[in-house]
Amino acid sequence: MLPGGLVSGGGGRGGGGGLCLLRWLGLRLWSRRGTLVFALLWFGSWLFLNGLVLVHRTILSDFCTDDKSKRILQRLCLEFSEGSVTGDMCEDLCVLGLVEYKRCLYYENGKKVIEARWRGSPIILKSKLENFSSYEPLGILDYQDAAEELSPLDVIFYATLEVRNSLGLAEENEDEDRGGGGVNNGSLARLLGKKLKNREKSYSRAELASLWALLQQEEYTFLRVLQDLSTHVAKVLGSCGHFYAVEYLSAGHAWDQNIFSLDDVAVSEVQDRGEGGARARWTAREMVHRIALSFLDMVWHFDNDFSHKLHLCDIKPENFAIRKDLTVVAIDVDMAFFEPKMRDILEQNCSSDDDCNFFDCSSRCNLSKRRCSPQRSNSNLQVICEKIFRPWFSPTLLGAKAALPLQVELQRALQECSATEGGVEESEEDVGGGGGRGGGRDVHQRLFSILKRLIQEGGTSDESVEAWEGKGHAHTALNF
């Protein structure tokens, strides 16, 4: 009994000691694990908070606020009062109070877009960079009295060189290569010099500095050069320093079924003809068809009416707007390039076709040379069909009308358009009568014919459609 009892008693005390040891070890392990978890949580929180602060600062630095926008305009007016900048809207903005600030629309990487009213009319104020001092100064102004010695023709010469550089146009004499249809210094200078040379006195330092800041903004240069040549780009209305004003237009929205807000478009009334007469106002669907016709006119215009094809590499509803007569207008042309610059952009090193995509403009990879072809493989029409027309004329939106013969024909044409490469400038004669790349022109004409019939089917008179067609295709070959 005693040995058994001793064994029993000793085993009990040993078991108790073992349990205590296990508990002690468990507490130590839990303590170490808890410390590790706490340290990880603290470190994670520190990283999160620092990242949040960094993101917060980044967001705020590019955040579109009214206070910051007003301070930028106040700084511009201060520079105007000091005589550093000038422009045809500076006095209205800074002295007479005829430019009324409305709101900030966009602010990213310094690019500022502001909605305002100038003498009662809505406008959009733009600048690529926030501050005037951020632009490269005109080097010749560093020399004493250099500005006073520059004649208007000298200014035209410097402006022409800067515009050619900004638009990526070649420097060599292109008339010989293109049979006289090229963009050359003489014709571009004549275009820019319409207003610049209508004066006898020299330009002031403020005028030259302001002009030079504007010419460093590709979008301003693009709009300013083309506004007398095209109805499909926004009009430049005036400027002050590095800010310029363009016409306010109803921009598109991807979430809008009709893309554009048609309620805000005031379509001029058509006088009655005969007993039935033409409709005084078009329905929403009729307006959509007319806007689509204007898109087709814009594509034709950009492919044919300049000595270099004009490529649109960022095609989305937000980058287009409509005027009251339903003319489609490109309002954001930061990603629009003439053929020479487009070729330079596309011709890059590659290992597959995926490396040859530049937003909506793409080419193909030559695997033997490992270089992208400088020739764009898709076209403005192809991308507009894919990103604008197909969602616009979706059978889901059309409902029961989707089964109508013309709508079925339109769907087939849009599907073919989305898969057809080549621009609308090529015809069978252009490619030796062999078809191929001439398909873009054929699809364009087919779409135009279908949309024209849809408008007529909607009740619009033949005269009205013919007037619209004549309006859209009144262009001739235009050289810079």
UniProtKB/TrEMBL annotation:
It is a single-pass type II membrane protein. SMART domains: PIP49_N (SM01299). InterPro entries: FAM69_kinase_dom (IPR022049), FAM69_N (IPR029244), Kinase-like_dom_sf (IPR011009). GO terms for cellular component: endoplasmic reticulum membrane. Keywords: Disulfide bond, Endoplasmic reticulum, Membrane, Signal-anchor, Transmembrane, Transmembrane helix. It is found in: Endoplasmic reticulum membrane. Pfam families: PIP49_C, PIP49_N. Its main location: endoplasmic reticulum. It comes from the Eukaryota. Residues 27-169 form the FAM69 N-terminal domain. The chain crosses the membrane at residues 36-55. Residues 419-441 are annotated as: Disordered. Belongs to the DIPK family. This is Divergent protein kinase domain 1C. It comes from Oreochromis niloticus (Nile tilapia). The lineage of its organism: Eukaryota, Metazoa, Chordata, Craniata, Vertebrata.
